[in-house]
Amino acid sequence: MKRRICIVMLVVILIISGCSVQETKNEAEEVIISINEQEVFLEEVEIYLKEIEKEFEAIGGKDIWETNFDGKTASEVAKERVIENIVQIKIINDKAKELGMDIDQEESESINEYVQNYKKSNEGNINETLVEQIFYESFIVNKVFEELTKGFEPNLEQTQEYINNDETLEFLYYLTLGQVRAKHILIEGEEHYKKAVEIQERAKDGEDFVSLVLEYSEDQASLEDNGEYTFYRGEMMPEFEEAAFNLEPGEISEVIETSYGYHIIQTEEFIDATENIVEQYEAYKEVLEEESIYVQKNNAFYKQYEEWKRNYTIRVNEEIWEDITLGIIIDEE
User: Fold this and answer.
1) Which residue has the higher pLDDT, 328 or 40?
2) Which of the chain's ends, N or C, has fewer CB atoms near its CB within 10 Å?
3) Any domain includes 248
């Protein structure tokens, strides 16, 4: 999400699998971002660059760096996100000091555990102090978010709209309605309406429906099954579906017109949804509700962050920053 505050733990950030920016010790100490009097050096920025590189390649592979996004290269978009995330983290941590917030003993132990795990999974020269700092700042961002959104009252109308607009939930909802098994006769061509009416009347008068299907139906796809389909809501033409679901088992429809032609439908039976499908629907709906509340919380927190940000002067060392390009992997010797 474009506005999303970076509040996710930085466990995965600290997995270095390649290097698209190589620097000497002096270069690593170059200031890349200044936020008021606070300075962020290349060595720290590089960790975020490596993670964003991994994220982009997980989505589009290494070819993603050849892609343009609204006139910007993927590298430019990724670098903008890195700057935005770092600035957010630093400002929120600065405000946390003003609010008197810090980590507790349990969180300190968790940070130490993450650092030790990182050291075990990575070889080479590791700046343990920097690694610990990044984890610490991530924990603080989460704490500030939780504190400032504590007691947040979500907008129920927004939550309902969020749920209603989800296509996956709509699909699951249709599954909960169960299936219908129905046979039909298709007569193609507008000029054959009278013929369709005559066949429908014969079916209503008790002629064997399957015999009429085999003699007259022009739906080649269903002929092998005697004109039969078994389907959920949302799978067939709306007019066809509405008729089939509203008939009683054994009942024959009027002549139904769709873009395919004229249909005479006989509903056979209704098949209830399984308990598993209903459970999936309810569980997914609950997830959406939680997501909606989180989005609203995040938006509220973002507004507060934007107010804080107005009091900060942010400078980027463009001379160095412009020379950094993501997606260029240099093998380490």
Assistant:
1) 40
2) C
3) yes
